[in-house]
Amino acid sequence: MRFKVPQDVQRADRIVGPLTWKQLIILGVGGGICYGIYVSLAQKYFIEIWLPPLVIVGGITVALAFLKIHGLTFEHWILAFIEYHVLPKKRFWKKGQAEPFISSLQKKPKKDKKLKNAQDKKKEKKEGKSIKELSKVLDSYGGLDKKKKNDPDLAEIEDEKRKKKEALKKLINHK
Question: What is the pTM of this model?
Fold first, then answer.
């Protein structure tokens, strides 16, 4: 048996004529607001009073439902317009300062919880190590403590330094 495969899966389904669900909902809400304005103002006021609010709300409704500017829906275009005017125009790059800028119109990537936890643990471990090293340097006033000289690792390092100095003295005196 053969099945028909849809060709344009990105396009929204048409529900009533050329209208999608989103357009139907926008037109329904906007029409309801216009009707409410008409009912509340038309009985008490002349057309000059109630017609401008109806035209404004109706125009915004039609724009939200149908208008596209440079391939963007009107609501996305308005959000991009606001974002452009609110955010700073000049940006300064500093290596490693923050995460890259992600527009409010783009979907934010989801981070895996395990990966995030592992990264946090790694950062804590690295920070803890650097703090320990810093505290050792500060406690020893930038050098080695008398207590630390009993440490086997430091004793080996001191031994190697002493041997290198002796070897260097022998080379110098040999000539």
Answer: 0.49
3-state DSSP call for residue 72?
strand
Per domain, the residue ranges of the chain are 21-86, 147-175
> 123-146 pLDDT, tens per residue?
766 665 567 677 777 777 666 555
Return the SS3 of 59. Answer: helix
Distance CA 64, CA 58 (A): 10
User: 54, 38 in Cβ contact below 8 A?
Assistant: yes
pLDDT at 27 over 90: yes
The stretches of the chain forming alpha helices (DSSP H) are 21-42, 47-66, 74-86, 113-139, 152-174
Task: Please state, in angstroms and rounded to a whole number, the distance separating the CA atoms of residues 151 and 160.
Answer: 14
pLDDT per residue over 50-84, tens digit each?
A: 999 999 999 999 999 999 999 899 999 999 999 99
Distance between CA atoms of 22 and 55, rounded to whole angstroms?
Answer: 21
